[in-house]
Amino acid sequence: DKMDHLLGQLGSGMHPHTDEILSVKGIFAKPPYNLESLGTRHLTYLCHMHGLHTWYFKRGRLAERSYLVHHMDLAIKREGGPESMDIDALIHSCYLRGLNPENLSNQEMIEWLTRWIKLSSKVDGENVSLYLHLPILLGYNHPNNWLLIH
Fold this sequence. Notes:
This protein has helices spanning 2-11, 18-23, 40-49, 58-78, 87-96, 106-120, 128-139, 143-149. By secondary structure, it is mainly alpha-helical.
């Protein structure tokens, strides 16, 4: 029910709150949403979304991608958070995590990246699939991303 509500929010153009996303974290740890259970088509879409090629070993590449970005998130948090990053690092970090930072202020990028890191710090190996879906859950309805889609 919580996941249906969250998807309904996305479908209606709203942003789910971080707490709402965390409340469905457990769903991504078991079939059908955990990484091992996702179908080939779903894996292909995730690879496209994360800029990975779609040939062999999709699951492994997706797991590696989430591991690398997750550790970057931990480093950002350890080094003072998004507030301590320079503008180029902020822009690159937003792009890497699925947000188009064009025309966003530093503060808007910091706020979005702070939300991402709050969620990222709660993800572990069990629910890595949630991490791979965060660009959709956090960024799909962002106005800057809609500019790219339409």
